[in-house]
Design brief:
single chain; alpha+beta; Ubiquitin-like (UB roll); Fumarate Reductase Iron-sulfur Protein, Chain B, domain 2; 2 domains; five-stranded mixed sheet; two-stranded antiparallel ribbon; 8 helices; elongated
């Protein structure tokens, strides 16, 4: 049952189209325990009326799993990139300010286009080439010393929190970002993926690759899956340098 004595005050940055100017609207909804930001946005969607009583359009955002698995509901909440489904109202100071992650193109309101991350995954060949099939007895075994690392990195949701927090991602730089870069390290650890390790490392030597990382370490602070991004970026930088030397002596 809602507590009629308490309300939740939200200030939401909105944008009607990709080319229109952003503006803010304030909303006030009834408080109830265990409310998260997604649930608060749903309340506004049911009754899109601003704090001063003006009828408006429902706020547009994206969500899917609501379990901090898909990464779709990433937005900037009180100045920090995070998952709206895991952002509990009880733990947020009010007024709660919500904005889209502007490292990415804004489609409308809080809905963003993360295509750039998937294009970056294509660039570093973020997949395993497997032609044909093999019997189980012939399948390669994952190195037990790297299995834990691979498992940790595989938790990446491609949510974009690390790109939003990174000062080297955006119009001021050509860096493809922590998440796509570290995925190269993940696939280089794979028993089949290591056969394309050289291609991935060479791709990271190109413009926007590993050398564009400024080691600000913002990414590891905001990662919702607590992936040790800076650790793997450092190890990947070592691998890229080794590959650069091989390229020189193999000529």
């Amino acid at each position: 049952m809602a507590d009629t004595q308490k309300t939740v005050h939200l200030i939401i940055e909105r944008q009607d189209s990709p080319t229109s100017k952003p503006y803010t609207e304030e909303f006030e909804i009834p408080y109830r325990p265990a409310l998260n930001v997604v649930a608060a946005l749903m309340e506004i969607q049911k009754n899109p009326v601003t704090k001063d009583g003006k009828k408006t359009t429902p706020v547009v955002w994206e969500c899917n799993c609501l379990e901090k698995v898909c990464g779709a509901c990433m937005m900037v909440i009180n100045g920090r990139a995070r998952q709206a489904c895991a952002a509990l109202i009880d733990k947020l100071p009010q007024p709660i300010r919500i904005a889209p992650a502007r490292t990415f193109p804004v489609i409308r309101d809080l809905l963003i286009d993360r295509s750039v991350m998937f294009e970056s995954l294509k660039r570093i060949q973020g997949w395993i080439n497997v032609d044909g099939s093999w019997e189980n007895r012939e399948a390669p075994i994952q190195n037990p010393y790297t299995a834990a690392t691979a498992y940790e990195i595989s938790h990446c949701m491609t949510c974009g929190c690390c790109l939003e927090a990174c000062p080297n991602v955006g119009p001021q730089s050509d860096f493809i970002g922590p998440a796509p870069t570290v995925q190269a390290y993940l696939f280089n650890l794979h028993p089949f993926g290591k056969f394309d390790k050289e291609k991935r490392l060479n791709a990271l030597m190109e413009k926007g690759g590993i050398t564009s990382c400024g080691n600000s370490q913002n990414c590891v602070e905001v990662c919702p899956k607590h992936i040790k991004l800076t650790t793997y970026l450092a190890q990947l930088n070592r691998d890229v340098n080794k590959q650069a030397l091989r390229n020189i002596f193999d000529k």
